[in-house]
Amino acid sequence: MKNRLKVLRAERNWSQADLAEKLEVSRQSVNAIETGKYDPSLPLAFRIADVFELPIEDIFQRGD
Amino acid sequence: MVARMTPEHRRYTRAVMLLMGGYVATLVGVNLFFKNSAPTGLGAYAAALLPALPVIGVFVAIGRLLTSLRDEYQRYLMTRQILIATGFTLSVATAWGFVESFGLLPHVPAFYATVLWFAGLGFGGCVNALLERRGGGE
Fold it and tell me: Are B1 and B64 within one domain?
């Protein structure tokens, strides 16, 4: 699964730590999702969508 | 397991320290008891079992830590670490058992499986750290 987390974060000038705090997860988790090492669960993906105020499909796309 | 100490990890560390204190106390106590009074019957079994209880408590604490982690990625890492430890222990125990059954290795007490499992946890932690480093980050 591909994602636009890094780009969306950069647009808002958020660090990984900032996003981690908003999502109430570790910075390590944000990094793992961003680098494609870990695909988040559906509830976490929805939380990410809520934080960015975007539909989930604008953040996550099918792919390797 | 993780870089940052969460409240769940603090609770786990406290529990493990208490249990390890209990383990040392029961081990020393039971050894002295067997040395001085040579117990028999059910009492002997109950006493001999005592040092195992705090160790079993550590497994419970590990299970509680795993289920209490709110961060799903941390849970994933810990699950992988436990799977590596379990696979490592079962592999070594199975291999040892077969070689031992042909009289090529000495018999080893079963509680050494726990020692192996904790060594496997350490190995699992190294695998996690290695895979983390490969991914990069900010």
Answer: yes
Question: What domain range includes position B85?
Answer: 71-138
Cross-chain residue pair B3–A38, CB shorter than 8 Å: no
Give yes or no for a contact between A60 and A2, defined as CB atoms under 8 angstroms apart. Answer: yes
Does some domain include residue A59? Answer: no
Structure tokens belonging to residue A12: 């808002």
Pairwise CA distance, residues B101 & B46, whole Å: 30
Q: Write the CATH number for A17.
A: 1.10.260.40
Q: From chain B, pick out residues whose CB is under 8 angstroms from the CB of A9.
A: none
* A5-41 confidence digits (pLDDT tens): 999 999 999 999 999 999 999 999 999 999 989 999 9
Instruction: Place B18 in a pLDDT band, splitting at 50, 70 and 90.
Output: very high
